[in-house]
Specification:
single chain, mainly alpha, 4 helices, binds zinc ion
Length: about 110
């Protein structure tokens, strides 16, 4: 494996750890949700419910990114890193620099 691949592998596993830590923080929360009352203190309950919804959205987004990071790590070991999973064309170095866990080219990513 060339040096830049090692650097990419290190970067991806660091990103993976970061995402898992963020997911871990979000996943601790639901245990507290049972105490939310939508009764008397409506304003407070509603804002907490809204906050919970945005947490779910963040959680979903983190999981999608984590799946991409996992796939990119797999592609490194398969030797297909840098190639699109859909059309097998090059993802492009600029895109990979901005998004090292990209597993699809810009065109195919837009179709997801
Ligand atoms: Zn493609």
């Amino acid at each position: 494996m060339p040096d830049d691949m090692h650097a990419t592998a290190a970067l991806l596993s660091a990103k993976r750890a970061e995402l898992q830590a963020q997911l871990g923080v979000l996943e601790v929360r639901p245990a507290d949700q049972g105490s939310i009352s939508f009764g008397k203190r409506v304003g407070e309950g509603t804002s907490m419910a809204v906050e919970r919804l945005s947490q779910v959205a963040v959680h979903d987004r983190l999981q999608v990114t984590l799946a991409d990071v996992d796939r990119a790590i797999a592609k490194l070991s398969e030797g297909t890193y840098g190639r699109c999973d859909v059309c097998e064309g090059p993802i492009g170095s600029e895109r990979l620099e901005a998004l090292p866990w990209a597993t699809r080219c810009v065109r195919d990513a837009a179709r997801r």
